[in-house]
Amino acid sequence: MSPLPYLLSPHEQGSVGWFADRAGRVTGSMADAVTAEGRKGGEAVTRRNYRYQLACERLTGRPILSDFTNSHIERGRALEGEARQRYEQATSALVRQAGFAYWSELPIGCSVDGFVGENGFVEIKCPLPAIHIDYLEANRVPPNYIRQVLHNMLVTQADFCDFISFNKELPEDLQLFVYRAERSVLAQDLRTYRSLLEEFLREVDVLTKHLSHLGQTRKPNVATAGH
Questions:
Q1: Does residue 179 sit within a domain?
Q2: Burial of 4 (0-12, 13-18, 19+ CB in 10 A)
């Protein structure tokens, strides 16, 4: 058996150790920020802010924590376990939960919602009925999640991702949506994403070194009375 292409953190998702593992690393949930495009060729604000965040985390060795939440996030957390169970029942597959997966060669990582089969993983979403119906109708990985899937596929080197949407308010036969995204089909998209990711990481490196030098050489600019 070939060795895993990634390391697995022993820390539970949401724990202090899990957040520490993520510090300074690009994660799947932020893949959209990495690839965001600004107006008129400039850098998107979300990309710039994430670049600044990662540089700060590298300099301090501490994660910048966010307490942001909303009803949609809380809904997803509450229903994720049931969605995972329904997927297992429908596919006869066992989902294996694990900690943060990360590379040693590049500062990247991800927390998938579970590993499945010989070399696959699942991404679970529990949206409102209207959004879930959109997913059913489109029958694909939603565009706003495709870069997260690409990132997590890159980190884990998985052969496939089963994108899962679950909504228990619909009739039972419409509650579960599963779309399998195959690595072989996404090969070109993966190459493009990795190229953009590596460029972003180079920019984070440059910024981190610049800020480190600035901190060592900069003298405080303290105003004095009468000036």
A1: yes
A2: exposed
